[in-house]
Amino acid sequence: MIIALTIKDVINEMWGVLKGFNWLTDLLDIVLVAFILYGAFKLIRDSKAMQLVKGILLLAVLYAVVTLLKMQASSYLFSILFGNLFLMLVIVFTPEIRNALESVGRTSVFNLGNFLQIGRDDLKRQEQMNITINAVCKEVSELSDSKTGALIVFEKDTNLGEIIKTGTIIDAKVTPELLGNIFYPKAPLHDGAVIIRNSRVAAAGCILPLTFNSNIGRELGTRHRAAIGMSEESDAIIVIVSEESGSISFAYKGRLKHGISEGELREILTNQFLSAEKVDRDSKRRKKNKEEGK
Predict the structure, then answer these.
(1) How high is the pLDDT of residue 109?
(2) From CA 194, how far away is CA 214, in angstroms rounded?
(3) What is the pLDDT of residue 285?
(4) Which residues make beta-bridge pairs with 201?
(5) What is the value of pTM for the model shown?
(6) Which of the residues 59, 101, 210, 260 has the least number of beta carbons within 10 Å of its own beta carbon?
């Protein structure tokens, strides 16, 4: 009987909430809060801030435990700590908050003219990425022939801002000549990695995290280990040219594919960064050019 009454009370409460629910403002409110929470999670997910969040959650659990156990001294200390929590969060997450506000300010949603050109902008980005892929593949082939070591990272969804900060900011168009100059053996940035973001060379001479995988073959050098390590910590695609053998490799999601050709590399990058429609059009165009060449 008590259970039945409880279920009835819950249903009545839910019905009361639904009756007072405004399908315009309340629904918009829920969507906005969800969007903000998702944006905050995405912001901290790919940075060291995630470790801080875990630490704060652990402290919150400890606070709940000492409160339930009525541990007065510990409860007092935790109450002081969490009483200033908002101010502490603002101070600790200042870099992330600044990056988020800059990102919001740069978004085209706030520019009506750009907003109306979203379709064109997407097509333009596809064309730029296609040019970037061609430039990278061309220079990688040259570097392979001359046995010049290289490490090129294509950023995807995981933000590589912290990795970019370890190198020298360049922010230039990707060209075979630029990549050749960066990886020239006597150049000051040749030992580090090049980060490609939004079809541009964001930085060079960047330091990548090494893998801790003990199953990696001893014949693989620092470049390959750094590439695997970067692919384990992000969804980036890393292209490697061996200084010893000149072989081309790529790392993705913790796995390394060794000894690929320029054509295979082009196909991998194309499938990862270009839309299916773009890939299909390029395939048909190459097939047509071959037929005309015959």
Answers:
(1) 46
(2) 26
(3) 59
(4) 172, 196
(5) 0.59
(6) 101
